[in-house]
Every structure is written in C-alpha cells, then in structure tokens.
Design goal:
This protein is α+β, with helices and mostly antiparallel strands. It has a single domain, classed as 3-methyladenine DNA Glycosylase, Chain A (Roll). The protein is built from six helices and nine strands; from the N terminus they run βααβββββαααβββα.
Length: 220
C-alpha cells in the first residue's frame, strides 16, 4: 500500500457519476474527512458496500421513492445519512445518474487524522486505532457524522468552517476482496461488499468467499 501524502484532492462529481460497483472499488484508499467546530477527523476507507436501484431488495429504494430515500434519487456526490435501529447514523455516498437510486455505504475506516478527537467521541479510550472506525455506526460516531450531514455535497471542501468530503491522497491499494454484503437478509446473492485485503480495520470477514472475479461481483 502506498503511504498517504499530506492533504489531498477532493473527489469531483464525475467520480461518483459512474456505475456503483466501480465507485465502491475506487473509494477504497480514499480518505473521508469531516471538519466540525470540534476539529478535523479523517480516515482511509477500507470497506464499502454497493446498493443499486429499486431492483436491489437490500437498497432503501426497493419500495420506490419516499421522503427518507429521496437523496438516493438526486445528484451524485452527495451524502445520504440515515438513522439505523434507533441507535446509529450510517454514511453513504450517492452514485450514478440523477433519478437512478444508488449509493455506497462506507463500512470501515483506518484513522488518518484526529485520532484523539475520535477517541473522545467514542468515549472508549482503550480501543485500538482500528476499533475506532470499524463498522458503519462506529465510524459515523468517531467522525461526528449525524443526520445534519444528510444531503451534504461531498465535492466541496470549504476553506473554513464545517464540511464533509472525500479526498484522494494518492494511496494505492494492493489487493481488493469482494464478498456478499453484511447485516442484510435480502440480496445476499450479490458480492457487492469490497474491502482492502489484509487490513486489520475491516469490520467483517476477510477470507473464504470474499475473493471473487468481477463477473461474480455483478451477479453474472
């Protein structure tokens, strides 16, 4: 894996305006950044899942347009943040063309900046660095992502003040694994979860069925 360079380039809208599986794969190694009044926290994306269209029974768009899933039908490159199980906020990046509902759920990060701030937010100083952002609910809490960030434009990084964005710091990933998505009961036949192979920060299984060809990812 290539080490990160200081700073980075904010991902443009064209990055997200592509097939969701391509976006999910290419998000690995990119850095999710959230700046608030408390400070800046950031982590390298090491695990992500694709949710694609009304035909995907695990996608929030499966029942058709609703007030909750409206961001999925909007412009790509925006955040879709929702409250899950009455406990956790989960962060997604909207993908593909306007009107076609799809997104990438970020499942785990490797902390890069603001680890002390992450620890304060998690309230568990004994956690390892990887445990801070392992799992989509934990990473949202560690980065301070709430429902206030729903619909945030990820392609803009303000020079001052709060902001949420994903940037490219030149990190290259050596190997990517694929597996069925986690925590769902429908759509489990799709190998639409990708992760950095060998990363200790990945939230779920890292072996067995998880290394798949691209045709298998697409359900061919």
């Amino acid at each position: 894996m290539t080490p990160a360079r200081p700073g980075g380039l904010v991902l443009p809208r064209s990055f997200y305006d592509r097939p969701t599986l391509d976006v999910a794969r290419d998000m690995l190694g990119k850095v999710l950044v959230h700046r608030t009044a408390d400070g800046l926290a950031a982590g390298m994306i090491v695990e992500a899942e694709a949710y694609i269209g009304e035909g995907d029974p695990a996608c929030h768009a499966a029942p058709g347009p609703t007030r909750r899933n409206e961001p999925l039908y909007g412009e790509s490159g925006h955040a879709y943040v929702y409250f899950n199980y009455g406990m956790h906020c989960l962060f997604n990046a909207v993908t593909e063309r306007r009107g076609f509902p799809a997104a990438v759920l970020v499942r785990a990060l490797e902390p890069v900046d603001g680890e002390a701030l992450m620890r304060r937010r998690r309230g568990r100083p004994q956690l390892s660095a990887c445990d801070l952002c392992r799992g989509p609910g934990n990473l949202a809490r560690a980065l301070g992502i709430t429902l206030a960030e729903n619909r945030a434009d990820l392609t803009r990084a303000p020079k001052r003040g709060a902001g949420l964005w994903i940037e490219d710091r030149g990190i290259e990933i050596d190997e990517v694994g694929w597996s069925p998505r986690m925590g769902i009961r429908l759509g489990t036949e799709h190998a639409w979860r990708c992760f950095v192979a060998g990363s200790s920060c990945v939230s779920g299984r890292r072996g067995g069925r998880e290394s798949r060809s691209r045709s298998q990812q697409e359900g061919a």
